[in-house]
């Protein structure tokens, strides 16, 4: 018999910006659909994105390095996109440079990437440069771990993203 005094189960209302981001990455970056990339939400100062190991494994039943790199690249692009969108700017966003370190294999059923959000100082500088120069840069860090407390992330990606205002692109 159900507990009539229990709190009703509520599903969180998805953030409309993140729901729109999910649509954008599937429409504008076709590999996202092939990889099964999902925008999970914001948590602890990071954008969380995931993809299933089932679609992204290698011959050793661990995550394929190319899929890990793609997920990290997409997570950084997504944070840059959200920052430009926050400024109501339709900037063209590209990655200028990236580096990735694979510390250990990733074998969890869901590959989870955490892109750390920019600091307030980074956000202010990004907004200022985009407004004044029509171009701005964000340096971002994305980490993938196993989902359990570990001493360090299994994968660490750094990327430098450039947003260019449409009239100067």
UniProtKB/TrEMBL annotation:
Residues 19-164 form the Thioesterase putative domain. It comes from the Bacteria. Gene3D superfamilies: Hotdog Thioesterase. SUPFAM superfamilies: Thioesterase/thiol ester dehydrase-isomerase. Pfam families: YiiD_C (PF09500). This is Putative thioesterase. The lineage of its organism: Bacteria, Pseudomonadati, Planctomycetota, Planctomycetia, Pirellulales.
């Amino acid at each position: 018999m159900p507990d009539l005094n229990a709190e009703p189960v509520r599903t969180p209302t998805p953030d409309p910006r993140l729901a729109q981001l999910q649509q954008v990455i599937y429409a504008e970056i076709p590999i996202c659909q092939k990889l099964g990339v999902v925008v999970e939400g914001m948590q602890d100062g990071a954008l969380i994105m995931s993809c299933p190991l089932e679609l992204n494994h290698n011959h050793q039943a661990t995550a394929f390095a190319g899929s890990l790199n793609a997920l990290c690249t997409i997570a950084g692009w997504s944070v840059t996109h959200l920052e430009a969108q926050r400024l109501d700017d339709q900037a063209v966003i590209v990655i200028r440079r990236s580096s990735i370190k694979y510390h250990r294999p990733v074998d969890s059923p869901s590959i989870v990437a955490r892109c750390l959000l920019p600091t307030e100082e980074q956000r202010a500088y990004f907004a200022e440069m985009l407004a004044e120069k029509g171009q701005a840069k964000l340096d971002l860090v994305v980490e993938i771990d196993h989902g359990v407390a570990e001493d360090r992330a299994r994968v660490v990606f750094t990327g430098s993203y450039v947003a260019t205002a449409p009239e100067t692109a």
